[in-house]
Fold this protein.
Amino acid sequence: MNHRVLRKTGLPLVEALPWHIYAFPLLRQEKGGSASTNLLWITRHDLNTNTGHTEEKLGNRVRLSDVAKRAEVGVGTVSRVLNRSAKVSAITRQKVLDAIAELGYTPNMVARSLAANRTGLIAAIIPEIGYTQHSEIILGMTNVLNTNGMNLIIDTCGYSDEGELQVIEAFLARRPDAIYVTGVRHTEAVRTALKRSGIPVVEGGNLTDHPIDTVVGYSNFNASVELTRLLIDRGYRLIWHVTAYKDFNNGCIEDRLEGFRWATSTEGGLEVNVIRCENSFDGGAEAVRLVTASDVKVGALTFATDVMAVGGLLECQRRGIAVPERLGIAGFGDLTIARSINPALTTVKVDRLGLGRKAAEIIVSRLKGNGHSSRVVDVGFEVVERESTRRSDRGAH
């Protein structure tokens, strides 16, 4: 490792060879006054160090005046081109764009945001990056925001209340134009910080009658009720619900459990039970093992997530348990694997891409000065019946 100091900043510069990636230590204050260090990774290309003189090249940024000189126009004309003003002729606009390309000019967004009191950045906080249900929402938001000249910045909170507050405070310090947060159950500190921010706030995923600002989502409770009623209508009478040890979905998992309880409580002649397992393939498999080890001839399992349901279905295949003839299985979420596995999984489908688009559309409308008619936007859901619960007979068990 070679260690140098980046001139004018005093920050140690760690050069990792042979990839030429630089790591800048970023200090994050923790409780109790201690500090932890994260690293901001930047490639050598990003620092424009082709000549080997990193420190000097950082000071040679192309300026707006350089573009104006190359295009033989005024600085104001360059600004109008960058702002997509219609008050510039096509010939002049092309001259400016050519100069920008030749010089490699990058607009100073910090300066522009100070002048316009807008950053063009929308912040989004999700629990984890790797889950389809979150990535589809982000994709929907990005499609709308990019079309309107805005960009999305994303961070994760790891299903932690403290982590969520920390990320929100970090984002707000960077002055985003609006913010999207996952779920509707937040600490009072989070709600207070978002309300005081003075920017549009959209909560997404579940529904609530008391949003911080605006909420876009669907009722997990109602979806679970309809899914459970489908099984009852198909003749299932001994139904167990498999939920997670901990609700990592900001109230969604518990709402699904309450929906199951409510639906089964309004119907006579049912025998029901609730078991808790890990929200994973292994957790779903464990649920099937618990069922087979019991003396109860369970007719169907409703899982709080597709992940657990698929794990349960695979365990049935390993044990030679016929699905749905011996045991019906239903999930929640309609992940891609739910449609691909055999038998295909009965589940609840939500248009997460559409949810993301709607959240972004509300943000764009608010930033353009338009009001919004409703603080609660329900995107709905669909119960999708597939082969994992369709039985040829209607015998009750």
User: Anything to note?
Assistant: The chain has a mean pLDDT of 83.
